[in-house]
């Protein structure tokens, strides 16, 4: 298969009127899915759900036990009549970078290929890449390039094929997240997205709607839950409730909880500050970057009370919890069956399911 055909099979362009596709998000701990019915202004949430994965099935983005994943996806196909899927590739396995294609270059792909090996430490024959223009300048076009080892792409392709599901597209996780978390006005800005999950925390920067930087931290909300369980000697459900209802609310009655949470949250905050500073302070050898103007938080642990205010105080820019329905429908006209607190956990799956459903969804 030639490079062009390989890319089209993995990164096909979105179609306005396409066969309804489920969004399927495969992570280390579970497989989440979401599917919408209707198109455009008639879009409504259909079925959604989560299937836990035993430890070791997916490790650091690698599907180690393909048969287990195939069986789950096959079950989804049969139970929920899922035939077509948009899915994501693991961020940890991506090579993502920005490059300037000089003015006068008539073929952007050729411009990206010119210094591809400078940025990706894999032989070109063993990689598949895609790119997205970010902005045009006097010097040329700045593009974001995403590359994966072919073995990663082939494994994900094979899993869906064996399950009898047609794979419409694969993309980096954070681009699906951007499709969900960024509203229309955010596409004119530089926005940091933080997906504060159970086991990991994903950080991404979207430059005018295009993901141009990603990082993954091996710490998530389960460490917070464990700290609350230990400190208050309560069960996991009780710890989750305490964490989400009180969180970082300051006050004498909440002092012990804040003290229990702050050690773990400080680790996450310090890493976010580090990446925030990295983006905002490019070196002389790097392409110029517009500073981050806003931060959007999602993931199950975005429900942590007062967490956005805590980050806002550390970073000095507005921090908001994502509205994952902003590009799907108006909550004034339709209320989905999914609770808001749950929707933050499904942000990636929702973004995948939205791909190509309306003219405004990229």
From TrEMBL:
<protein>
    <recommendedName>
        <fullName>SHS2 domain-containing protein</fullName>
    </recommendedName>
</protein>
<dbReference type="Pfam" id="PF11104">
    <property type="entry name" value="PilM_2"/>
</dbReference>
<dbReference type="InterPro" id="IPR005883">
    <property type="entry name" value="PilM"/>
</dbReference>
<dbReference type="InterPro" id="IPR050696">
    <property type="entry name" value="FtsA/MreB"/>
</dbReference>
<dbReference type="InterPro" id="IPR043129">
    <property type="entry name" value="ATPase_NBD"/>
</dbReference>
